[in-house]
Amino acid sequence: MGQVGRLLVIGVGLIGGSFALALKAAGACREVIGVTPQREAGEQAKTLGVVDRAYTHLPEALGLLQPGDLVFVAVPTLAVESVFAQLKDYLPAGVTVTDGASVKGSVRSAAEKVWGEMPSFLVPGHPIAGSERSGVSAARDDLYRDHRIILTPAPDTGADHLRRVVQAWQAAGAEVLEMSVEEHDEVLAATSHLPHVIAFSLVDTLAHDAENENIFRYAAGGFRDFTRIASSDPVMWRDIMLANREAILKAIDLYSLNLSSLRSAIASGDSAALMGVFTRAKAARDHFTKMLAKQAYSETMQAQEVTFIAQPGGTVSGKLRVPGDKSMSHRSIMLGSLAEGVTEVQGFLEGEDALATLQAFRDMGVVIEGPHDGRVTIHGVGLHGLKAPPGPLYLGNSGTSMRLLAGLLAGQGFDVSLTGDESLSKRPMNRVANPLREMGAIIETGPEGRPPLLVKSAGQLSGIQYQLPMASAQVKSAVLLAGLYAQGETSTVEPAPTRDHTERMLQGFGYSVERDGARATVCGGGELKAARIDVPADISSAAFFMVAAAISPGSDVTLEHVGINPTRDGVIHILRAMGGDIELQNTRTVGGEPVADIRVRYAPLRGILIPEAQVPLAIDEFPALFIAAACAQGETVLTGAEELRVKESDRIQAMADGLSVLGVSANPTKDGIVIAGTSGGPVFTGGTVDSLGDHRIAMAFAVASLRARDTIRILHCANVATSFPNFAELAVGSGLKLQQL
Ligand code: S3P
Asked: Which residues does the record give as phosphoenolpyruvate binding sites (predicted)?
């Protein structure tokens, strides 16, 4: 690669030595020269192959450099200035200088002191990597691999110098980021310097506690994990504390405040406060653990690429329980949080969407235990007990979270902003913002009514009568939830029945909802009382296995404990109208919701004209139903379904594109699709289809493999985890030949 000519490392310890080894291993420099005041250390570095030549006298080594060479200053933070003073006199022109000090403000001050300004050849940097071990013998060529390097270039830093440093770090396998000196020092004070302060101080406290002389004899995993960093290099850490004093003091003050309120909670036996701190911290740490597993030191939890490879053929059979209903899981957290008392939920969907709602309420101060195996305990704070979250609420892929929260937050006394992933950021939000504004809410959206949403404290809302322009349970629910905070009555009138979980669950929490045909009315100013909620399995997830059994000869599958609320059962009616063999067994009511075991056996299907009245009742099931339509004799025609174009993807287009790739004639229309079915034998060719990151598109094409001639590859499937985290496992267990890469 040869990005740099010679590399001169000043201070050949763990940091400098590892950089030298990494560049050597990558073939990214011609020669490494080491400078270290102790001759023996230089000899050792040579013996270990870390440097090719070693010097004790810096000016002598600098004399060897030529334009295009790189100097890496890897000395303790407070020694940087004296190194700079020598560079000033002896550094040849055209040579780039970078450093690895953990505090950048002090490096900038040192440079300004020595040169009077930041010289253009100096590119300050900080590798976010290290080890509690120090010295050249600890150096490794992979220390920086998949770790982050923060560079803090100044406005006058030379572009060539910056490029040289970026390329060198990239050659070492690192990811390079840029930020301002101030931001760097503040972030590091909180995430690195404060933990070191606490670890050093804890070990020191324990080691000098006379009453516990033998303390280390009994110390186990917790002590070891927590205090590993207290065996880091004392000189380095002394320097960092002195160099980043202001930012570290700020971090210590904040921490001391939190520690003392934790102390008070322990002293007063305040179990709710303790659970609040511990559950929030656990959620945050679990999130970080996942980030570490996915990508070392990744800043955002980037959706990992998941591809489904579905081999053709097979049948499905057995008894399956698919995960809990997504709509009800969201609502259980929302209403449980706003209730008085402790709500117990079981059957909760541990998918990313519902977890985004859960985290949002944690961020607003609600103590929520779990989920553990679908059980969640919510310590409700009452309708007026939410607190302003510390930052924007990130709702991932979940439209339901964002729209329902917009309504619920419209009546709070604080401002909050709601953000989401790429797909959610494209979805229309004026459908909720407009009626909420009519109620007096103050809501700002991004361009064209897209997220992010800023919901501001607006004072008293007023009830409205709202005629929904589209059949949307999310819009209906947002308005009704805002109605809990509004003066007087709030009514919604829907153009066609949509899922009524909000109305049912409000009633389950003891809040009166008057229902009269298409109209639902709540009166503001009431109270929610904690409840027990049993979330049945999600019919929208069950639908993939219903279709799987319906299209593959020999299949016989029973989906247990599925919610068959009449506002959700369109998939049953549509499949039956197509000739599907569906039996509802053991029908019962659980927590105000009808539930059944659904048995589906293969039977030949025929194409139909889908009744428009069924569309809102099966709105999420169309990707699966389109696969059934492709396997039916004759044509299936869908109309009145323009809402499908504004789901997690444009589902009409996404399915039409994928079906065409797989050799099925599918013609999208403005508000639906016409699919030409094929009865008998394989229906789909093999091929690669793009789910566009839409969970339901991904699962639908996985099911298609049962009637495929060849392998189907489905791209961008990570979001299956939003609604159906164990889809691949259940699919394989029931007979699909699905592999997840
Ligand atoms: C949902 C309502 C529907 C549905 C979504 C969940 C809900 O959206 O597609 O998956 O939980 O209220 P719309 O209200 O946009 O139709």
From this structure: 326, 399, 427, 474, 651, 696
